[in-house]
Structures are given as structure tokens and as C-alpha cells.
Amino acid sequence: MNIILFGPPGAGKGTQAQFIVKKHNYFQLSTGNLLRDEIKLKTPLGEKVEKLISNGKFASDETVNTLLRKSIINLKFRDRIIFDGYPRNVDQAKNLELILGEFKQTIGHIIFLNVSRNIIEKRIMGRVTCEKCNMTMNEFFNKEQINLHPCGKEFLKKRKDDNLEVVIARYDTYMNSTKPVLDFYSKNENFTEIDGAAEIEQITNKINDVLKV
């Protein structure tokens, strides 16, 4: 069955999607990746999208829907898709149901990773990466691990793009645009909300419990 996995930036969707892919043999479908693939292939659609992005605009729902349709009709992906980053608005949510219905597919589970802005800020602003071994830790959540890090604390650096202003803007934009989608899906009997502030393994176990049902 197909799965929708959504939540704010920094909620850990990508991490959890990869766990589902490996454990349950699913395909992760990211609309962002689909658009980037079209650009790389230099298709007419890709050239159109590239112009939009270079001007700071988003690809239209029509463009995204065209790419989604190509993936959904692929028999290899049938009823084994994790929709990551889609839908972002109610129109997209309704359209997804129409496309799936057209090809006799359904959405089996809708999983929302709910994380507060405060936790997102700490996750991103506290993130440090070791320049020596590439291990990533967090100043707020992994204090003991950082103190005992074998490479030494002098190798722990912050990423330049971990900017608080950008983090807050992305979070607020996501929550404002996604609130109607959340309301739309929360009435569905297959909707599950999971505390995205929990440990990664705890979240994975909860998702596995949901997918067993």
C-alpha cells in the first residue's frame, strides 16, 4: 500500500523514509528529486522547471502532477510508494487521490511526524559534524557523546547553512501551508500522528507498528 509521510523541515522524514524503504521494500518518491532529474536529463519539462527555479519560482501543480503520474503508472512502484514532500496543499492532496484512483491504487497510511519549532531549532542550530570522521551530533541532545568523542572536540564544526532565521522561515511557511493538508488528512482512519521529538529508533518502531496493521 502507498504511504504519505509528512512533517516540517527537520522532522526526520528522510531518515524514516529510508528505514521504510529498506525494511519494507518501498520506493521513496520525492517531488524535488523528480524535478531535479528532469533538469539533469534536459527534457523540455526540465528546461521549463529550471527557468522557473532560477527566477525563484516554484514548479506548478500541473508540472508536479505530470511527473507523479509517470511514477504512479510504473508497475514497479505499484502500491509501494512513500510520498515524501507531497502533497503540500489541499489541491495536491485531492489530485493525488484522483490519480491513484485512476490506476486502482490507494493511500494505506498517512503518517505525520509532529515536531515543535523549538525542537527543530535545537536540532538544526545544535548540529555539529566532525571534520575527521563525518559523524553528526547535537550540542543540545548529545552532550556526553560530544565530550567523549574520540576525534576530539576541535574537529566538530557547524554547517554554514544552519541559519536560525532561515530555519524559522522554512518552518513557519511549512506549517502555514500544510495546516489545511493536516486538517484534510486527520479525518482519515489511516492517519497517524507520531511525536517526531522522540529518539530516531523510537519513531522507527512506532512507524513499523503502524505498518504492521
The ordered string of helix (H) and strand (E) elements is EHEHHHEHEHEEHEHEH
In what range is the share of β-strand residues? 15-25%
Q: What would you call the structural class?
A: alpha/beta
Strand order of the largest sheet: 2-3-1-4-8
Distance between the termini: 12 Å
C-alpha Rg (nearest Å):
19 Å
Number of E strands: 8
Largest sheet properties = 5 strands, parallel
Task: Give the overall form.
Answer: globular
Low-confidence segments, given as residue ranges, are none
Percent of residues in helices:
40-55%
Mean residue pLDDT? 87
Tally of individual helices? 9
Task: Walk me through this protein's architecture.
With 213 residues, the protein is of the alpha/beta class. 51% of the residues lie in helices and 16% in strands. The protein is built from nine helices and eight strands. A five-stranded parallel beta sheet has the order 2-3-1-4-8, sandwiched between helices. A three-stranded antiparallel beta sheet has the order 6-5-7. It is globular. The model has no long low-confidence stretch (mean pLDDT 87).
Secondary structure elements and their pairing?
Blueprint: E1 2-6, H1 13-24, E2 27-30, H2 31-41, H3 44-54, H4 61-72, E3 81-84, H5 90-102, E4 107-114, H6 117-125, E5 127-130, E6 136-138, H7 143-147, E7 156-157, H8 164-186, E8 191-195, H9 200-212
Parallel strand pairs: 1-3, 1-4, 2-3, 4-8
Antiparallel strand pairs: 5-6, 5-7
